[in-house]
Amino acid sequence: MSKFVYLFKEANQSMRNLLGGKGANLGEMTSLGLPIPQGFTVSTEACTRYYEDGKKINKDIEKQIFEALAETEKIVNKKFGDNSNPFLVSVRSGARASMPGMMDTILNLGLNDEAVVGLAKQTDNERFAYDSYRRFITMFSDVVMEINKSNFEKIFDAKKEAKGIELDTDLTAEDLKDIVEAFKVKYKELKGQPFPQDPKEQLILAVEAVFRSWDNPRAQYYRRMNNIPYEWGTAVNVQSMVFGNMGDTSGTGVAFTRNPSNGEKALYGEYLFNAQGEDVVAGIRTPKPISELEKDNPAIYKQFLEISSKLENHYRDMQDLEFTIERGELFILQTRNGKRTAQAALKIAIDMVEEGLLTEKEAILKVEPSQLDTLLHPQFDPEALAKAEVISTGLNASPGAATGKVAFTAERATEMAANGDQVILVREETSPEDIEGMAVAQGVLTARGGMTSHAAVVARGMGTCCVAGAHEVRVNEEELFFTVNGKKYKEGDYISLDGTTGKIYGEKVKTIEATVSGDFAKLMSWADKHRALKVRTNADNKRDASQAYEFGAEGIGLCRTEHMFFEGTRIKAVREMIVAKTVEEREKALAKLLPMQRQDFIELYEAMQGHPVTIRYLDPPLHEFLPTDKEDIIDLAKDLGITFDELNATINELHETNPMLGHRGVRLSITYPEIAVMQTRAVIEAAIEVNKKGLNVVPEIMIPLVGELKELKYIKERVVKTADEIIKAAGVELKYSVGTMIEIPRACLTAEEIAKEAEFFSFGTNDLTQMGFGFSRDDAGKFLADYYKKNIFNEDPFAHVDQRGIGRLMQMAVEDGRKSRPDIKLGICGEHGGDPRSVEFCHNIGLTYVSCSPFRVPIARLAAAQANIKNPRK
Amino acid sequence: MSKFVYLFKEANQSMRNLLGGKGANLGEMTSLGLPIPQGFTVSTEACTRYYEDGKKINKDIEKQIFEALAETEKIVNKKFGDNSNPFLVSVRSGARASMPGMMDTILNLGLNDEAVVGLAKQTDNERFAYDSYRRFITMFSDVVMEINKSNFEKIFDAKKEAKGIELDTDLTAEDLKDIVEAFKVKYKELKGQPFPQDPKEQLILAVEAVFRSWDNPRAQYYRRMNNIPYEWGTAVNVQSMVFGNMGDTSGTGVAFTRNPSNGEKALYGEYLFNAQGEDVVAGIRTPKPISELEKDNPAIYKQFLEISSKLENHYRDMQDLEFTIERGELFILQTRNGKRTAQAALKIAIDMVEEGLLTEKEAILKVEPSQLDTLLHPQFDPEALAKAEVISTGLNASPGAATGKVAFTAERATEMAANGDQVILVREETSPEDIEGMAVAQGVLTARGGMTSHAAVVARGMGTCCVAGAHEVRVNEEELFFTVNGKKYKEGDYISLDGTTGKIYGEKVKTIEATVSGDFAKLMSWADKHRALKVRTNADNKRDASQAYEFGAEGIGLCRTEHMFFEGTRIKAVREMIVAKTVEEREKALAKLLPMQRQDFIELYEAMQGHPVTIRYLDPPLHEFLPTDKEDIIDLAKDLGITFDELNATINELHETNPMLGHRGVRLSITYPEIAVMQTRAVIEAAIEVNKKGLNVVPEIMIPLVGELKELKYIKERVVKTADEIIKAAGVELKYSVGTMIEIPRACLTAEEIAKEAEFFSFGTNDLTQMGFGFSRDDAGKFLADYYKKNIFNEDPFAHVDQRGIGRLMQMAVEDGRKSRPDIKLGICGEHGGDPRSVEFCHNIGLTYVSCSPFRVPIARLAAAQANIKNPRK
């Protein structure tokens, strides 16, 4: 039988995975000689066993728990259920990662009809003893037995009413005894058996309840939001109770060793005299700032300062402590690395280097890359936010805060913005035609689509706040309103979106602008010094490219040329091209696009100042450029000078059952090589033009959706022929390269062949994930909800590179690609290029660069540095 | 410089890949001492170089050609362009695989104004010489210079008219001289330069023309139909001319060493005296049966008999010979293994074993497995077929011949069939609702969809003839007619389909029934003795299962349970299940399906006589069970007792952008585990029932579309719990297993994990191909046409397992799956299970069985035997 239960004195910091953060730290603090109420931890492995055994604690684990209990009784010299010196414990969850408030806690466990007498004797305070007992019964019944608290609250309130009193504290010991009796009667009535009097039985039931709480809906949600695997499980800490509510020499509080809002180096926190932890949290009494403890009890304050400083130095990180003072004696209940704002994280990391507490590399590892987002986007004013009502929640698709008037079409959004209004664009889902409306909007809300839907991807690229896939929102695009949970919002009504949390507010909420401090620049400069991966950006226009350049992008890793095709005059030429019946007609339409496309590239090259620019050739299925609405089709037919039937026939012909797996990417170029030829002209002519002005652009031409060497070869031949002719005619020297996106599983499987023609690979992990999993990102949202609920997935499979499956394909492609072209340039340009965990993976498999949306560039820089510090590249 | 040109005397049989079949055999026959007009072969590698060099023959190859020419001149003792003893040659293509009629031939090359004089002298026949010259000018201009023949025919006919004669043979030598002059003038007029007089220039131009013809549209088409890679290229054979048209002691003919129609052992063929090969083929004069040669020229006949017998013994296969007799001297122009009917193939193989010419294993290798198809399906009467007009061609989706009246809906097809009509069901594309109509139809024609479309897959399963994806056919399903190339066909009009060739005939064509001979049974028994792979069938009903059992299936590898859900009373319960709002409602609807589903399985188990039966749980997206038409929705809503809006909302909710990558397979079971529970009840209860009657069924439960271990685990837990409860309650012993389809790329990538729960893997290579390539089989047809035209693909990527890409995934899954479960059962149940090339691959990677549609079972048995003979399994 393995060991499932550990006394605090057997534990230490390194046992976090086994004992959870709380348990490991209680062990560590015990060995540091700090005043810790003793106890033991039931391991996370016991939790896993509990679930494997069909939600039962097996007899061996129970035995180990009772042995640890007996040991602890000896240490604290108290006895479970004793009527003179009873041993009471708290039972609390403690997972590997901190999950504040997500799981359950039971205090005062061990009380029964005997022990309560003992507690009264021991504390010489009968009222306190019975108050503790009634609290315990309520908490145990609620958390362990799933009896609604209101059953007990009614009895309690009835007693107060009967006695004509208002404050709980006015109840006497006798009143509380009556209440306890009434509670026990109620309990029996509801459960059919008496309230358990055996403290050991209470303990096992409580441990089971904590294990069970690992899988409650709010824990599931928290895990998914924070990428915590279900498999980790939670540990359970059984700790002897100390009481902060034993009179005026007792108290309880929480404190941070530095200010978690701004990072200033000063003890920060609050405490309450004569109170238990729950009182501080519940907010019934207003706690005092921790600084006042110095006046109230200078000795304890001094001791606390020493301990907190010792812990910060020991853990080399800002600590978040819970403490209790029991009759003048200080106890530390837990310590953990404190949560902090991005601003504080930067300041603390930098200060600690200056203080000599951390090296630069260590400081880099202390800042969570994804936190940087909040520094770059507007946020809500916290005060205003506290008052605002959440009407629904969607996916936190693109961070930031936005407030504005609702618009339901891109056209209306543009008009309203032109009138000086702040606008929130609300759509069932967006399509490329909505780009302009998205660009002028403060935020975008969609009812359908996931984290990599069109709305999400484009909004992130623009740095625009977006809440996507808000399933409760029902959009009526014809009558211009949406409803959510029975409420109706019309065009012009105010709503607000929090793209960082996914919350939707039905009103105007004040926002505050983003501010970037000097600390940010300093940390970024350190990060750049320590990373091996290059960081590029995905950008299709001057604005995004310049923004990304400011954020430190070292080139463009993905320019989606189709985004350039939707603007007014262009879309017409694109549509002429689509309805063309001959190559000549098609070339005529393409000739109209050439000068515009060339100008686009000139602007991008200039924004990137000579850094590499990767241009992906036309990718989406052509039907995306055509209208679907009958009236729009009639208008367009007129415009194009063809009949409705003709145009409609073209649209029907382009219809696909599964457009995701249809006629797009390189497949378009194979049918219409003249498109690739036009794009090549634009790429090369633009490069020649800017290089004349002194830049040294080396364009990278990227062919999408290749799954077979010959596809690439066919197009590359035409690209090279076109490019070389232009270069020769211009009489200049110009280098360029031709590569491919690796986004089809078969491309990974045949990478050795493809690398014979491809001068670079850029992983398109969105599509690779879609095809590798067989999940359409437009559709999967609906059934993935069941996957989360049933713990089949812990998280959105599109959120991070799936290392076990899709990552294996990537690794094959990297290894095989290098076999035929050892110096092949390897990048990633899917959404994952800005996800810290995926960036680490890309570093580890040896990519050359990652490319991400402009606002994620700093995140990627930091993540790349962390990856290289953890696993330095030779 | 490599060697690109080989004299016949340098070549032999083993050089087929390099020199093509014709070249290698001419070499072999030369070394056997047979009378072969000498010459040389330009290799297939030269063809590859020709294309790589931008369709030019490089100087080195040209030099080698001229050297070989000089050598040959020495051997035959003639001179190119000589005015007394000119050397003339034929220039013919010859690829690795025989491609009769697909590429071009040029005869009499070497004639010019000088050589024609020489030829006249040499043959003492001026008329013959000029007739040869005018033929050469026409053929060279047509084949090499792309000048339409009609230009010359007009001149020729004008001369005849001017002379008032009818027969070509009435033209005199002088007339022909005039004609030659006029031809040369015409040539210069069209080409701007004189007809090439340099025989060496003629030769190089001709060789280039043959290389060019490798990529002409009819060669492309032939290659695709016969799986011949573009990369192989063709060789060119330059052979000295011999003339069968030099008078009555000359002649030409073709012969088979056995009868290619029925396999009888007797020389079979025909010949013509005083004629060239083209006359035999053109059919202007009626040739005599070869047997008459014995009377006409017993010595030559005897010599020919000896040679043909020698060649058959040498090649150990039936030979197809071309010969020419020049002034009493016999020459063999080529030999090759003869094409033959399936019936002949069987007889020849078996006879040759009896004759001691072949071993059993060798005989097995001589029969093309895919040929067996024609033995099992009705065929057209060849005479009737010769007269019928082809109105269009689609994909040869399911073999056989069918004739009947057109019906446009499954309902009408059923009604018409009930009235005793033979019916052809014509649809834009079929859906599962059409099953009944397909079952009663003689044949199915669809305008859309590929080789693995619904229509194709289901028709093959039923053994029903099907032509799919006939793009020229425009179906008007509302007004009940279709048009094709301007012609209109209404309900009730007769059409005929050839599912083996894809041809569509606009009339009734007489069919003849399939006949299976004793030879078939004998060869199959040999095949069974020599194979290692088991062969199962894909079948969903008693009829198909019994059919497959007769054809030798050793179990069912795939029962698609959804096919059982479309019948009248069932579809209603299925729909009730879909619109159910609660688990209870859903279970109520499922309870109605249970007895029917149980009965289905009883029938299948019984049909399979205790052989294993693999049952795949519900797979398709639920929207496939709901109507799309407004009126049908109204009707159904009434039927289900809900409002139109409610039903419509459900339908809209089920709509998916990419249903292929949507909510189906195991994903359905995760959302609605009660479906899997009901199916488990049916599977297990049915097995208990039939086992009571003495069978020993071990059901195999197959979960589709698994991509992650936990998906399978979640469902397996419920399946096992349900099954074990039923078995326990019944008080019986029953074994069963639970496995999964491997059809998602990620399943292959994580096979080691999945095998921890899966007791068997069955590769679903249709979906694996779709996702691995990123090709939707419903949509790819449209753009794949361009892929064939541009030689990016040689063949439909769904036709055979793609060994370089998808096959690599399969191999990973096999190896990794065995790591965690060494005795895992491995099968394939995609369409590829009946494709000989894919069967060989499955054998080579170590699968346990293949499963295919009933009519492909014999094909798979033979292919499995061939695979094991070539690469014996230890």
From TrEMBL, chains A, B:
> In what residue span(s) does the PEP-utilising enzyme mobile domain sit?
421-502
Annotated catalysed reactions? pyruvate + phosphate + ATP = phosphoenolpyruvate + AMP + diphosphate + H(+)
Report keywords, A-Z: ATP-binding, Kinase, Magnesium, Metal-binding, Nucleotide-binding, Pyruvate, Transferase
- Give the first-level EC class, as a single word: transferase
Give the binding site residues for Mg(2+): 743, 767
What's one Pfam family the UniProt record gives for this protein?
PPDK_N
Chain residues that bind substrate: 560, 616, 743, 764-767
Query: Where in the sequence is the active site?
Result: 454 (tele-phosphohistidine intermediate), 829 (proton donor)
Judging by the UniProt lineage, the source's domain of life is Bacteria
Molecular functions per Gene Ontology: ATP binding; kinase activity; metal ion binding; pyruvate, phosphate dikinase activity
Q: Using the record's annotation, list all stretches that form the PEP-utilising enzyme C-terminal domain.
A: 518-868
Which cofactor(s) are needed, names only? Mg(2+)
Similarity comment: family membership: Belongs to the PEP-utilizing enzyme family.
- Name of the protein: Pyruvate, phosphate dikinase
Q: Which organism is it from?
A: Hujiaoplasma nucleasis
